[in-house]
Structures are given as structure tokens and as C-alpha cells.
Amino acid sequence: MDVATEPKPEPEPLARSEPAGYGRVFAVREFRAVFAAHAFSLLGLMVSEIALSVLVYRLTRSPLMSALTFALGFLPYLIGGTLLAGIADRFPARRVLVVCDLVCAGFVAVMVLPGAGIAVLLAMRCALATVAPLFQGARMATLTDVLGDGDLFVLGRSLLRIVSQSALLVGFGLGGVLLSVVSPRGALLITVGTFLTSAALLRFGTRRRPARSVGRSALVKDSLRGARQVLADRRVRVLLLLNWVPPMFSVAPEALAAPYADGLGVGAAGLGLLMCALPVGTIAGELYAGSRLRPEARARLALPLVCCTLLPYVGYALHPGLVWSLLLLTVSGAGSAYSLGLDQWFVRAVPEELRGRAMTLSTAGLMTLQGVGMALAGVAAEFAGVAATVTGAGVLGTVCCLLLAVEARRTEGPGDRDGGGGGGA
């Protein structure tokens, strides 16, 4: 049973004249628990993805079925993000997070069973992906409770993104090493442990808070109504699109890295470098913006950055070699520092009673459109080639971002250009 504890004093709000930094975020005790839980659950997901892919391939000897296990990580996001979003606001956030972790641990535990066949494995993979947007949306909304809705929230969310990008660099490598020591089902058992650890950290590391809203109708109906309320606001709608559209185009080089590396003749090592370049740029850009720029500077730079982040892809028109490709991808990744400004605007634009649903919808849309972007890039490359497809993604994506930036400027409030101050917990 949840037991409320008295809140402890948190750090003072970040003053507008002070340089930003991540130290103030880690000074918040509850955030440290959320951060650690995120790291453990993400580690589990990375290990489970590669272990499940290997396990499915060993059972079927089918590359298609192995690839399908990754695709199923994107497809159910839209279902969970729209039909279950109401849970994030109707129940206490800590309870939602802990139950989601326990449910995910249960799904993976079913995969570990020796008798689990292909149908069961893929069904559990879909179930994990359905719960994921609810968990991630509730966690993002919880950050506003823990850190406030000012600059500490922006930096906290930035840290979680940095961990996610870092996991892309090391997670699959660690999973491969792990599979050289234990069986795929043994690796999945480790994933069960990481989910349980995350649940324990959230249960005992964060305090109980009441639900943001009271549901008076069926869950699905309430979730869909909440989505309509979120999307009905013109400002929120354009900020959601700014959060979704650039990543939809930015995944093109990642989706086509294997054929491009093959065309360059750089082998597996070159492919690995191409896959790492975007995350490296993203981490560098976020670290610099979060640690060196003030909130008002990040707000001023958000729209210029979002309009420029896909421009480096136009360089693929020149069929660059490995070194130049890595440079283009790294620069593009660094441009994703625009997210810090968007985060501040988004949390200010969404009413508190809808934050859980809005964050869940944001996560679901992001993951779904990234999957769509990968698929469209593959189809386009079949006809136009890899270089032309990435170039086209850069041109079309930049045009879309420019149009959205104009709309964002039209809908901005009086405090949006200067970051709205530094509010804390």
C-alpha cells in the first residue's frame, strides 16, 4: 500500500541570470531515483531486443521474422498511446509507473518459459510495446511533479534523452557480449530483473502523489477524449508536430546505413560508425545546450535549430565518403538540442490535468512516426537509391520544419521567447 511521505525541500529555482547546469537536477533526491530506474529499464529493453531477435532467428532461421521483432517495437505504440493514455492521469503516477514495470517484467518472464513459441514471443513483444508509451508518458509527467514545470524539468528530460542515446551506443554491444556468455532466454531473465529493480526504485525512491484527474467514463473513451482535448489546442498541436516531424525524417540515414556502408565498402566497422554518429551528435548537442546555455538562450535557438537540423542531409547529394558522412550525421544530431526549448514550451502549454495523457500521446506519436519514417525511407531507396533518399529527407524535412516554425511563432505566448524563467520544484 502506498504511504505518503513528507516532501523535502528541493533546490531553489534556477535564476534567469545564472548559467544552466545539470548539477541542480541531480540534487533533487526523487529525480535520482527516476534517473536510475530509467537506466535499469532501458538496459533491460536493449538486452531483451537483441536477445529476442536472436532467439526468434534460432527458432525460425528466418531473417524476416528476426527483423519483425524490431518492427513490433514500433507498431503498437500508437495503440497504447491513444487507448491507454487516460491511465496516466486517472491514477497516482507512482502506482502507474510501478505497475507498468511489474507488468513488463511479467511479459518478459513469459518469454523465458522453455515452451514459449514464436507466437507467444511476438505477442509478448507487442504487449511490451503497448505498455511502453503509457510508462514513458507517465514518467515524463512525473518529472513535472518532481522538478516543477520550469528549467529543471527541461534539464531532467534532457538527461533521460541522453541516457537513451547513450544506450544506443553501448546497449546492443553489451547485449552481444552477454549473449556470448548466456543463452537468449537467460539474457531475457536478466531483463526481468532490471524491470523489477526499476519498479523498486520508483516505489521507494519517489513519494506518493494524487491522481491528476478523476475518470468518470470508460478508460478508452476517456483516453480518446483526452487526446482530442490535447490536439484541439492549436499551440499544443504545433509543438507536438515539431516533436514528431524532425525525427521522422532524421531516421532515414539510420534505416539505410547498412546499404550505404555496403556501397562505400567500409564493412561492419564502418556500419557501426554510421549508426553511432547521430547519437553522438545528439548527446553532444544536448550536453552543451543544457550545461552552457541559459533557458532564454535555448528558447531563442529552438526554432532556428529545428529548421537547420536536417539540412546536413542535403550533403548526401554529393555521395560523401565515410568521414564526411559521419561529420554530416554528427552535425545533424547536434541540432536536436532544439528539444530543450520545445520541452519548456510544451509543458507550459498543456493543462496540468492533461499532462499525463499529453506526454503519452507525444511519446506514441514520436515512436510511431519514426517507424513510418524508416519504412518510407526503405521504400524510397528501392527506387531512388540511398543517397537520393537521404537528400530528399533533408530537403522535405527542412521545408516541413520551416512551415511548423512559422506556425509556432504565430502561436507563441509572451513568455515563450525568453524561456519563461527558470522555475523549479
TrEMBL record:
GO cellular component, one term: plasma membrane
Gene3D superfamilies: MFS general substrate transporter like domains
Keywords associated with the record: Cell membrane, Membrane, Transmembrane, Transmembrane helix
InterPro entries attached to this UniProt entry: MFS (IPR011701), MFS_trans_sf (IPR036259)
Keyword Cell membrane: yes
Recorded topology in the membrane: Multi-pass membrane protein
Pfam families, per the entry: MFS_1
Record-level Gene Ontology MF annotations: transmembrane transporter activity
Subcellular location: Cell membrane
Metal-binding keyword on record: no
Major site of localization recorded for this protein: membrane
Protein name: MFS transporter
Organism this protein belongs to: Streptomyces sp. R21
